[in-house]
Each structure stands twice: as C-alpha cells, then as structure tokens.
C-alpha cells in the first residue's frame, strides 16, 4: 500500500497554476507510515498504553491517543486547536465504532471538568474502554495525522508571504523527499500545529509549521546530501529557535522550566532512520 500526499495550489492570483505544478509530493508506504506512527507514539506517550488517555499537569484538557489529541471539557475555550473531535469524525467515516459511552455524548465534550475530576475517576471502566479503543485504532490515528498534515501544508503555503512561497516550497520538497523529513513534517504539525490560528500566539509570535519554515535559511538543503547541510538539519534548528522563543514569550514559567527541555529533545529526534544492516 502506498499513501500519497499531494499538495495542490491554494494561492490566489495569476501564479496559481504554476504554483500547483511545483507543489511537493510525499509518498509513504505502509512501513514508513508505521515507523512515523511509532515515533509519534514514543514522543507523546513513551510508547505506554496508559498514556493514551492522559491529563498533563498545567493543562485544561485531557490528551488522547498516540498524538495526544486535545479534547476540551464543556465551557473551556482554550487557545490551542482542538483535535480529538476531528479524529473521531475521521474514524466514524471509516465505520469504526467507538465505546458506547463515548458514542452517546451530546454535546461531544470531555466529560471531566478538570484534571482533579479526571484523576478521581481514572482508572475506571470508562477510561479503560477508551484506552482499549485508542490502542486498537493506532493505525488509523496515523492515517488521520497524515491527512491532517496534507491539508495543513497546503494552507501553510497559501498563508506564507508571497515572496517566501517558492523558498518554502523548496524546503517542503526537500523534507518530503526523505523518511526523516516526512516524519518531521507529520510530527510537528501534530505536535505544534500549522501556525495559522490567531489564538496560538504569545506576544504576537506563533510557533507552528509556518513559523518554522519562515525561520529556515534560504539555502537550506543546497549544500549537498550531508546530514549537517540538509533541509532536515535546518528544520531542526529552526524549530528549536521557534519553540525557545515561544517559551520565552510565555507567561507561565512551566513552559520554560519544564516543557521546553522536552520539546527540544523531541525536535532532536527529527533525523533519518538508521540504515538497515
């Protein structure tokens, strides 16, 4: 099985046709997609099944699945883009049946008002049924992340300054050409988003994929095939810069003191897989 991610031109103006023709293409076979899914699961949950239903310290929402998809409780208006309801829509479109209690929620809000209420219940038949469901659908969750990235890349290109689009398209093409680069794209979009939502800003500065691509040097990936001169190495450095800026701009000290070291460690995993043998 080969999954193909093809960016179509989303920009307006007279250059739409030529932009579409130059759009990068990403091909992932089943083994490559499974490898990326395992990496994301390791990044988010250290590969632990218990972490498939989790509520992090300092957050106003539970995080679910291999991608720690955000699910807001009723009445919570967070700044981060909610991702668990879209995942469930994706799964239902593929005729996947959720646990009965989850399927019966209306409105579809997280049933715990805060972390204390979640911890008071977990583990329970309800949370364990949800963990089992999320464990059984790991492959489809990777497919959802893949689809989400496909849609995100087109939007990011469309939102880029006109004088930077060709450069960003070259960077995306270079990243899409290798398994490590594809992993970086899928993981970062899932991890920190597109960088388009106005709510995802500190002091006017975003931290998503758009901001990382804009922080990459123009000549990234043009110094040959050596890893240290690759687009992937430039993406790592740019992501570290963007996330460090986010932590410095944040009001809460937890982002600088506790979260940033983990973020930087995660970015350092954006490398090519070991060569077999």
Question: How would you sum up this structure, described in words?
Answer:
- It is a single chain.
- Helix 11 (231-249) packs antiparallel against helix 12 (253-268).
- The chain has helices spanning 16-21, 30-45, 84-93, 100-103, 115-121, 125-136, 138-159, 165-176, 179-192, 209-215, 231-249, 253-268, and strands at residues 2-6, 25-29, 53-54, 63-64, 69-70.
- The strands form 2 sheets. A 3-stranded antiparallel beta sheet has the order 3-4-5.
- The longest helix has 22 residues, at 138-159.
- It is globular, with a radius of gyration of 19 Å.
- Strand 3 and strand 4 (63-64) form a beta hairpin.
- It is mainly alpha-helical.
- It contains 12 helices and 5 strands.
Spell out the blueprint of helices and strands.
Elements: E1 2-6, H1 16-21, E2 25-29, H2 30-45, E3 53-54, E4 63-64, E5 69-70, H3 84-93, H4 100-103, H5 115-121, H6 125-136, H7 138-159, H8 165-176, H9 179-192, H10 209-215, H11 231-249, H12 253-268
Antiparallel strand pairs: 1-2, 3-4, 4-5
Helix pairs in contact: 2-7, 2-9, 7-9, 10-11, 11-12
Quick synopsis:
The chain has 277 residues and is mostly helical.
Keywords for this structure?
single chain, 12 helices, disordered N terminus, two-stranded antiparallel sheet, mainly alpha, about 280 residues, 3-stranded antiparallel sheet
């Amino acid at each position: 099985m080969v999954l193909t991610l093809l960016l179509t031109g989303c920009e307006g103006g007279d250059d739409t046709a030529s932009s579409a023709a130059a759009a990068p293409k990403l091909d992932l076979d089943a083994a490559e997609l499974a490898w990326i899914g395992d990496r994301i699961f390791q990044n988010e949950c250290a590969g632990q099944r218990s972490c498939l239903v989790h509520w992090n310290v300092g957050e106003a929402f539970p995080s679910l699945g291999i991608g720690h998809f955000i699910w807001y409780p009723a009445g919570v208006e967070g700044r981060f883009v909610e991702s668990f309801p879209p995942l469930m829509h994706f799964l239902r479109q593929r005729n996947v049946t959720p646990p009965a209690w989850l399927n019966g929620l209306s409105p579809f809000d997280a049933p715990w008002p805060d972390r204390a209420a979640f911890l008071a219940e977990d583990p329970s038949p309800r949370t364990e049924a949800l963990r089992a469901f999320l464990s059984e659908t790991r492959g489809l969750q990777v497919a959802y992340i893949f689809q989400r990235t496909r849609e995100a890349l087109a939007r990011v290109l469309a939102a880029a300054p006109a004088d930077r689009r060709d450069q960003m398209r070259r960077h995306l093409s270079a990243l899409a050409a290798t398994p490590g680069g594809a992993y970086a794209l899928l993981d970062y979009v899932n991890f920190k988003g597109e960088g388009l939502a106005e709510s995802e800003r500190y002091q006017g500065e975003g931290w998503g994929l758009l901001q990382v691509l804009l922080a990459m040097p123009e000549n990234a990936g043009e110094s040959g095939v050596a890893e240290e001169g690759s687009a992937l190495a430039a993406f790592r450095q740019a992501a570290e810069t963007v996330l460090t800026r986010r932590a410095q701009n944040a009001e809460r000290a937890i982002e600088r003191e506790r979260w940033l070291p983990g973020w930087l460690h995660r970015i350092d995993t954006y490398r090519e897989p070991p060569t077999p043998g």
